[in-house]
Structure formats: C-alpha cells, structure tokens
UniProtKB/TrEMBL annotation:
<keyword id="KW-0677">Repeat</keyword>
<keyword id="KW-0325">Glycoprotein</keyword>
<feature type="domain" description="Ig-like">
    <location>
        <begin position="144"/>
        <end position="210"/>
    </location>
</feature>
<keyword id="KW-0472">Membrane</keyword>
<keyword id="KW-1064">Adaptive immunity</keyword>
<dbReference type="InterPro" id="IPR003599">
    <property type="entry name" value="Ig_sub"/>
</dbReference>
<dbReference type="GO" id="GO:0035723">
    <property type="term" value="P:interleukin-15-mediated signaling pathway"/>
</dbReference>
<dbReference type="GO" id="GO:0002250">
    <property type="term" value="P:adaptive immune response"/>
</dbReference>
<dbReference type="GO" id="GO:0009897">
    <property type="term" value="C:external side of plasma membrane"/>
</dbReference>
<comment type="similarity">
    <text>Belongs to the LAG3 family.</text>
</comment>
<dbReference type="InterPro" id="IPR036179">
    <property type="entry name" value="Ig-like_dom_sf"/>
</dbReference>
<keyword id="KW-0393">Immunoglobulin domain</keyword>
<comment type="function">
    <text>Lymphocyte activation gene 3 protein: Inhibitory receptor on antigen activated T-cells. Delivers inhibitory signals upon binding to ligands, such as FGL1. FGL1 constitutes a major ligand of LAG3 and is responsible for LAG3 T-cell inhibitory function. Following TCR engagement, LAG3 associates with CD3-TCR in the immunological synapse and directly inhibits T-cell activation. May inhibit antigen-specific T-cell activation in synergy with PDCD1/PD-1, possibly by acting as a coreceptor for PDCD1/PD-1.</text>
</comment>
<protein>
    <recommendedName>
        <fullName>Lymphocyte activation gene 3 protein</fullName>
    </recommendedName>
</protein>
<keyword id="KW-0964">Secreted</keyword>
<keyword id="KW-1015">Disulfide bond</keyword>
<feature type="domain" description="Ig-like">
    <location>
        <begin position="223"/>
        <end position="310"/>
    </location>
</feature>
Length: 431
C-alpha cells in the first residue's frame, strides 16, 4: 500500500516480431477492473499482482480504469487520476502494462486489458492485491553488511523463474547481487540502491506473481566527505546529517561520535538530535584546521562522514596601524587547499570598490611557494585604503568563503568640506 504496482500486459518476443508494423498504425488499450480480492505476498512491504490460474472468482461489477483510443486520446477514471497510467512510448514496443502509484487498498480487484492493434487483439487478466506492511530502512553498507529482499507467494508450487527489477531495470545477478530461492541479497547497499524493487515469480501452471517494495537507505545528506571554509575568528558548522530522522521509522539507539584526526575524541551525540549531528565550533583558529570524522552507529552498522575544516586568514606585512605612505602587503592564506581554489580581493567599504577589485588565480596550490595564496600589495598606502578589505575564496562551484581585514591608517586628516576626488591609488596582486 502506497507503493507502485505494475500490471503486466505485453506481447511475447515472437508476437512483437510479427506485429511491430501494426503497432505503428492504430493501437487502442482499455483497462477495466472487476471487483476485488486480497492476495498475500511478503517483501517487507509493497504490492503484489497475480495472473493465470490463481485468478479468484471476483465480484464482476466492471469499472473502466484507463483507456487509450486509436486517436491517442487518454481517458482515466476520476478515482485513478493521476495514479494510473500506461507508458505511451511502450505501446509501440508491445508493452501495454498498467502502472498504479501510489497504490490504495481500494484498488484491489481483478483487472482486464483489451488491446486492439491493426487487425489483432490481445487480452490480459491480472488480479491485484495490496500488501500492507511497515516501511523498512536499511543503513548504508558497512564492511561485510548484506541486505536481503524476500519475495514469497501463497501459490502452493515452487517458482520456476525469478526476476528482479530496480527502477524498472532488470537486475544482473552478479557482483553485489545474489538471488537464492526467491530472495535477493544486496551486499553493502549504497544510496543508489534506493527506490522501487520488483520481483517477478513464474510458476509451471502459468501463474505469474509480481511484488514491489520501496527500499529506503539510511545514510548522509550530501557527499560522504566535504570541505568547510571558514574565516579565522568566525564560527563554523561541520555537517553530519542523516537523510532521514531514524526515530520517525522506529530506529532507536542511533549515536554519533565526533573526532579530530589530530586531536582525538570531541564528543558523543544521541538520537535526540533527530538525525542531525552537526558539530558547531563557536570560534575557529589556525589550530582548529584539519580533518574531522563523524561516526554514526545504526544498530550494528557504523557509517562515517569526513569533513575538512579549511581556515582563511589574512596576514599583514605591518602589524597594527599603518602609516600613510608605507609599503604594505596583505597575504591571504588558506589551510588545506584542495587544488582548485582561487582568491579575490575587494575593498568592501570604499567608493572605489569596483575599480579596486582584483583577482588572482593560484597557478599551483600544490607547491609550497603558493600555499600562502594571493598577496595584495599596496606600494604606497593612502587615505583611500582605510577600511575593510575582503579576501574571498572561490572554486568551480562558486564562492566558498571569505575573511575580512580592517586596515587602519595613521595621520588621516578629515576635511571639513568635501575635497575633489584624487586619482585612484594603484594596487598590485602578487601570486
């Protein structure tokens, strides 16, 4: 209930080979429902569909579900809008399957499809039942962790064929996926394994059973490793957030532990944080830069997120107030560069801000001579240079962070009346 149901109706490969030309002319499809019957399939939670001899004697009151006319006009029952659909692109490939999402308990019943293409017709009968169960969350895979999907039917026989689909694509039974007696094992599940999984069981008497299960993976929001850029003296938040609140799914006892790879243990957090274990650092300095690790324990599995804290700093060549006419260099440096950053200087409280902006791109942050980053040189400091300067760090994804430096100049005389503007001072960027 609440998942995706696919009611199969399609031509066999041989029928498709003989009829593909007719499919490109006139094709009409009509799906109807005749009452209801409950079937039992267990895949944790999901949906099931039966066809063949196991079709029950159902109540024969007929309801139109969906119809595609020869002209291409689509008609859908009001109660099925927008949940029921057929893939128009699939009609030309002999696939007339009905898709219902999200599935509701009232959708239970026997469905029948009548397909007319060219001079030929095709009938399909499928009984649909709803399996009601609790959604399961699997933690992202740790070493040696395997997750199992079980597909069981109330059919008395043993399946002669089993197929598994993920997001409607056939799953190759190799590598991380192993099929055994109607069950599928997924070794070390990842975020890419999220979504609908469907099993198809075929029996020797012609019965086909289909069940769908929506698999959710409990992992981190965002990448498993990230870099946080922060100005020296500012606060920083190191992210460690799960993509779902584990308490909402009944998962208890989730704990997180933060550690600094150079300084050791930092603290533990419990489930009261609703899946958000972000580490807040009130004021960062050069000594706080480095690599951090957040280990989250979910039942018997531990998943890890690594965060690098990179500090942006400005070091002046002259400490304290600067005398007018002095030669000053402002050195913008970045700890733990990733090799793609470049720097931009800006006089943010000057009327000449746009004219004074300059950008310098580091040619090679991987070598020692460029680790200090971009240097702004003021050959002769003037009154126009006083105020706040900003050094910002940029990467391919945009602005990453910035640091501000307040420049004080001694010997400034504030005029009583406005003076005519003086020529813009010159600035040099060294890198």
């Amino acid at each position: 209930e609440g998942g995706l149901a696919v009611l199969p109706c399609h031509l066999s490969p041989q029928e498709l080979k003989n009829s593909w030309k007719m499919l490109y002319h006139k094709t009409a499809v009509r799906w109807e429902r005749h009452g209801g019957r409950y079937c039992r399939i267990t895949v944790g939670s999901g949906t099931c569909a039966l066809s063949g001899p196991m079709l029950a004697q159902a109540h024969k009151e007929t309801h139109m579900v969906l119809e595609v006319e020869y002209s291409g006009v689509l008609k859908t029952a009001r109660s099925m809008i927008p949940r029921a659909m057929v893939q128009n692109a699939d009609l030309r490939h002999g696939d007339f399957s009905l898709r219902i999402e999200p599935l509701q308990r009232d959708d239970v019943g026997e469905y029948e499809a009548l397909v007319r293409y060219g001079t030929a017709t095709l009938h399909c009968q499928v009984a649909l039942g709803v399996v009601k169960g609790r959604r399961r969350w699997s933690p992202m895979g740790g070493p040696g962790k395997t997750f199992w999907l079980h597909c069981n039917s109330s059919h008395p026989g043993k399946p002669v064929g089993v197929q598994w689909f993920h997001n409607d694509s056939l799953v190759p039974i190799s590598g991380r996926f192993v099929s055994l007696s109607g069950a599928l094992s997924i070794y070390r599940p990842t975020m890419s394994d999220m979504g609908p999984w469907r099993c198809n069981l075929a029996y020797s008497d012609g019965t086909n059973v289909s069940a769908t299960y929506n698999l959710q993976i409990l992992g981190f929001s965002g990448p498993a490793s990230s870099v946080v850029y922060a100005a020296a003296g500012s606060s920083a938040n190191l992210p460690c957030t799960l993509n779902h609140n584990p308490s909402a799914s009944g998962i208890q006892g989730v704990k997180a532990r933060w550690s600094n790879l150079t300084g050791g243990y930092l603290g533990d957090w419990g489930t009261s944080r609703n899946g958000d274990f972000t580490l807040h650092v009130p004021e960062v300095g050069p000594g706080d830069a480095g690599q951090y690790r957040c280990d989250v324990s979910i039942r018997s599995t531990t998943i890890t997120k690594e965060v690098t804290l990179a500090i942006i700093m400005v070091t002046p060549s002259i400490k304290g107030p600067v005398a007018e006419g002095s030669h000053l260099m402002l050195i913008c440096s970045l700890t733990h560069p990733q090799g793609h950053e470049h720097f931009q200087w800006r006089h943010i409280d000057s009327a000449y801000s746009n004219r004074n902006s300059a950008e310098a791109t580091s040619r090679d942050l991987g070598t020692q001579s460029f680790l200090l980053g971009s240097t702004l040189e003021l050959p002769r400091v003037s009154q126009k240079d006083t105020g706040t300067w900003e050094c910002s760090v940029h990467g391919p994804e945009g602005r990453l962070g910035a640091v501000e430096y307040g420049l004080e100049i001694t010997g400034i005389v504030f005029p009583v009346a406005p003076l005519p503007p003086s020529p813009c001072p010159s600035y040099t960027i060294l890198h």
